[in-house]
Amino acid sequence: MSEGSPMPSEAEQEAFEQNPHLLYSALRAEAPVSKVTAPGGLGVWMVTRYEDARPALSSAKLSKNVEIGQKVIEQNTDNEEMRLMFATELSAHMLNSDPPVHTRLRKLVNKVFTPRAVERLRPRIEEVTTELLDAMERAGRVDLMSAFAAPLPIAVICELLGVPLIDQDRFRGWVDAQLSGDPERLAEAAPALLGYLDELVASKRANPSEDLLTDLVHASDGDDKLSAQELVSMAFLLLVAGHETTVNLIGNGVLALLRHPDQLAALRADRSLLPGAIEEFLRYEGPVNTASLRFTTEPVELGGVVIPANQLVVVAVASANRDESQFPDGDKLDITRETGGHLAFGHGIHYCVGAPLARLEAEIAFGRLLDRFPDIRLDVDDADVRWKPGTVLRALKTLPVRVSAE
Prior knowledge:
Layout: H1 10-18, H2 21-30, E1 33-37, E2 43-47, H3 50-58, E3 62-63, H4 66-76, H5 80-85, H6 101-112, H7 115-119, H8 122-139, E4 141-143, H9 144-149, H10 151-161, H11 168-178, H12 183-206, H13 212-218, E5 220-221, E6 224-225, H14 228-259, H15 261-269, H16 274-285, E7 294-296, E8 300-302, E9 305-307, E10 312-315, H17 317-320, H18 355-372, E11 377-378, E12 400-402
Parallel strand pairs: 2-10
Antiparallel strand pairs: 1-2, 3-7, 4-12, 5-6, 7-10, 8-9, 11-12
């Protein structure tokens, strides 16, 4: 995986996807900032230690600008999926921007993405959670990912954006395509989703309603407002980032508990531990493996290593969150530990704007799940639990569970 190494074999890639922590541990010890060969032959600089990762996430010397990203990616790869990530109008959002553009966009979004706006979603989150748990109880045996972890966040995102109920099934289909990693599906779905979001923004402007997208349409800072294009790309960012983060937080967290019955028992016995447990799930096996791409516009020194200009940089937050210099016994799940400073939601100006919503959804989802199903357990051998391919997200393929006492 070092510079000049061949593209990883299928077996090596499979091993990394199923347990990236072995490689991360070795890299932290031997080459904490190093150039590695990712699937598809793409060369990226990977940052694995906490002491380097945290400043890298907030460094002004590492650009997030979408136009810079397009150029750097074109210089470094002919991978079609990578090119598509930055070639669509949907990608021109605040996560892919630098100050002063980012500062302006974030300021406008912060005006409406308030604690009050998040809290008003609580009744809907509770309602959907109850409906999904009812269906799980009737079934007795389910895939927790498809039965609970995935449908809850997408229902909340539809509520957040004010997507009409009649449109939600096709909306979910477009979202799934965006997250599939399939260039063909991505290319097909992107224009349809773009067109739909254009129409949705226009409808919110003409007919305001009680949702965050309407609030964004009318948000202003003096004479400044989000343009139509900015509104569409912002809606897309909230959609993708807000959905997938929470899906994986729920799935990974439930698996962590099922693999650690002592921690599950402790949480059942003392529900006041739940907020801290959620932070520990985020640290221990968070929803994001590597943070979104950054780009060097000039030579940048990290961890004593100089990364040249026009290079791609990834911060392995899953590695930093298990760095024992920051989190003693980092490979151990401990829902009572002090997790302050974990990087699951990023750090600095790009810290996840939807983090409070993800935490609220997780609080309700885990709390209600534990209340309803005291006998929940894996319905497959632990060794048969598989993770999805890819290096960005830490996501389960399925999580078969039994929720009945039988």
